[in-house]
Specification:
Helices cover 38% and strands 8% of the residues. It has helices at residues 10-21, 34-44, 75-86, 100-105, 120-131, 134-141, 158-170, 196-200, 202-208, 243-250, 274-277, 295-308, 326-351, 387-391, 399-409, 413-422, 437-443, 447-455, and strands at residues 61-64, 70-73, 92-94, 110-111, 147-151, 222-227, 233-238, 256-257, 265-266, 356-358, 364-366. The radius of gyration is 25 Å and the shape is globular.
Length: 471
């Protein structure tokens, strides 16, 4: 009544309350109009069947821990809900297209792409962003998005899908994997080690940041702001977002509609990445009977299908193994390996540059060497968790506890500072024996680490499984 504008979110809040406070087999009486469909699809992502089962797409599922405990994994929906509660209403989220509708429906945020994948060239641009070397990717992403969301945690996560991202990108931007339609150099060697092209990619760094030893995103370009409970989703804030490009895209006068006042308006990319977009080769898919494929498209498709069917070999991603397909394939393999190594070397070299770099939009984006940057300072206000809260933290062994132990053992203060600046509560993690960061820091006599942990208000009055305090 006083003229203040508010956001009314009562309906979704009510649905969310149901999902968190009622049994999974609870039945809800609701009018058979929009309410029922909204509750099932846009909030839960579930389609109840007779007998209480669910079919795809489902965002929640049961899983068992190593000790046999059954848990409900709700990471995906929690991540989307976090977006809706902790990001501006005009925030743009970049993620692989699979999750677009979920981000829009549950997170209520604009997504760069969704399941309406008719625009192959646009999906290819998204694929290029995610599979390009980190610095190159940032130069594009900062003009398109405010956050990047990725699925992690194994199984069908984004790393498993990444070869498809590279192939789709390469079908439009042929310089991603020159002469190699299947992008065989974007992957892993036998044993699980990444190829140089994979290791340099933005996706690999976002996926493995501070989880795999030695892998860390550039803190000047991306900042981790959310990691789900069971590690299935990670969200990063894009730093140095181009305000000019964001304003240009939001300007209604820059929309291209099929008629004045029409709802159908195809998007336009901001002028700052026009040079990149001009390098696209429109890809005519075989299924599109309404368009004529050019000679290049047909040749590309034949080469792609031959390699996917095993009729022709691409460059081997396993050192000393694989059979090159004659002299031509051998040359392509050598060329691609050099390009991948060159990309990785270029990435390292550019990271060491301390000179200011001007982006296509005219914005100045200084590239500062990591070693010259002081460790990230703790947030202005770090909440001291109560002893009761800290005692409820699960005791478990996993990738995070292993990584924390290694960083403390190596006295890697820089990586620890970056991790804790985005996830302050990581100081409270406990391994299966009840020990945690403060125990390990005292054990290895890492006084600097102890000081850092104290800045993040770690508790020193908790006992491990043997009743011992950390100091």
């Amino acid at each position: 009544r006083d003229g203040t504008t508010i956001t009314v979110d009562d309906y979704r809040e009510a649905y969310w309350w149901l999902s968190k406070n009622t049994p999974l087999d609870a039945r809800v009486g609701v009018w058979a109009g929009d309410g029922g469909a909204h509750f099932r699809h846009r909030v839960l992502g579930l389609q109840p069947l007779d007998g209480g089962a669910a079919v795809e797409p489902k965002l929640m599922f049961h899983a068992q821990l190593r000790d046999g405990t059954t848990i409900t994994v709700d990471d995906y929906r929690e991540a989307y809900w976090w977006l809706s509660k902790n990001t501006p209403l005009d925030a743009r989220v970049m993620a692989w297209w699979d999750y677009g509708y979920q981000i829009t429906g549950i997170g209520n945020r604009t997504t760069i792409a969704d399941g309406n994948t008719w625009n192959h060239e646009h999906i290819a641009t998204l694929g290029r962003c995610l599979t390009a070397p980190e610095q190159e990717a940032h130069r594009i992403v900062r003009h398109l998005a405010d956050y990047v969301l990725i699925w992690t945690g194994g199984g069908g996560d984004d790393l498993a899908k990444s070869p498809h991202m590279a192939r789709i990108g390469n079908s439009v931007y042929s310089d991603i994997c020159p002469g190699d339609p299947t992008c065989s150099q974007f992957g892993f060697y036998q044993g699980g080690n990444p190829t140089p092209m994979m290791e340099a990619s933005l996706l690999y760094k976002l996926h493995s940041h501070l989880v795999k030893p030695g892998v860390q995103v550039d803190p000047n370009r991306f900042k981790e702001v959310y990691r789900s409970q069971y590690g299935k989703v990670r969200i990063y804030q894009v730093l140095k977002v181009s305000k000019e490009s964001k304003a240009w895209v939001a300007d209604p006068s820059n929309r291209v509609c099929d008629a004045p006042g029409s709802w159908y308006c195809v998007g336009q990319y901001p002028p700052a990445i026009a040079k990149l977009i001009s390098r696209q080769t429109n890809f005519a898919q075989l299924e599109d009977f309404n368009s004529k494929t050019g000679g290049g498209d047909a040749e590309y498709q034949r080469e792609y299908m031959a390699r996917m069917n095993g009729e022709k070999s691409g460059p081997s991603t396993t050192p000393g193994q694989g059979k090159p397909g004659g002299k031509q394939s051998s040359k392509q393999s050598s060329k691609q390996a050099k390009l991948s190594a060159k990309a990785a070397a270029k990435e390292k070299k550019e990271k060491k540059s301390s000179s200011a770099r001007v982006s296509p939009s005219g914005d100045v984006s200084p590239d500062v060497e990591d070693e010259d940057m002081p460790p990230p300072a703790p947030p202005a206000k770090v909440k001291r968790r109560s002893k009761k809260w800290a005692e409820k933290v699960p005791w478990k062994d996993g990738e995070e506890t292993s990584m924390m132990y290694q960083l403390i053992e190596q006295d890697d203060l820089g990586s620890l500072s970056s991790w804790l600046s985005s996830s302050p509560d990581a100081v409270h993690m406990r391994s299966k024996d009840g020990r945690g960061p403060l125990w390990w820091a005292n054990e290895f006599q890492r006084t600097n680490v102890v000081q850092l942990l104290n800045k993040y208000k770690i508790r020193d009055d908790l006992a491990d499984s043997n009743g011992n305090l950390p100091s």
